[in-house]
Amino acid sequence: MTFKAPDSLAEQIAQHLAERIIRGELKPGERIQEQKVTQALNVSRGSVREALLILERRHLIVILPRRGAQVTEITAHNVISLCNLMSELYVLLAIAVARTWTEQADLGAFLQIQQRLIASSERADVQAFVEDSFNVMRAAFPFADNPYLQETVENLQPSMSRNYSLALEQRKAEMGDYLNLFANLLGAVIARDEVLIRKVLGDYAERSCKLILSALTAG
Fold first, then answer.
1. Are 189 and 201 in contact (CB under 8 A)?
2. Which of 85, 88, 125, 127 could be bridged to 120 by S-S, CB 3.0 to 4.6 A?
3. pTM of the model
4. pLDDT value at position 89?
5. What is the dihedral of CA 184, 189, 193, 196, to 10 degrees?
6. Can you tell me whether residue 137 is helix, strand or coil?
7. Same CATH topology for 9-71 and 76-218?
């Protein structure tokens, strides 16, 4: 049995604030005041400070001297840099699954996520769609068995979720295209075709980057 400790209070606060940033309720450049968060959530100031450090590590806020914490800006440079890096991390995870799976049951989690993605797309639920898109990566973690890769992905995931949410809220029809890309990726993984995996994920990253940049310009 694998032991998983419950999330700390600071982690719960960080997740709460992260969701608000990802949904766009907290805008780029907006200040996050410790005292207001402490009062709103009825928690200690120390827990809030720890939560803000978690959010800074996940690139959702920046903590500035004498100005405190504020939500990070989404810039074209950051979008391109993040997409390029995430593309390589996706490839590492997908290839790990392709090389490691042995029986159909090993792929069950991915097939279940695919069905949830289809359902989210049909009801145009962007947040559920984005969340399950990253659950695909989490389902791949055991195959990679690389704690450094897992930590890196988990720290970058909130920023990428924020970018995807921004883009898909403006163009929900794109969810159908992402479903096709995921189906192609799953087929490549099952076939253990590493060349095709790289191609599919390269196309995925390029499409995502263009979509996010377009949404950024429109915004």
1. no
2. 125
3. 0.85
4. 95
5. 30
6. helix
7. no
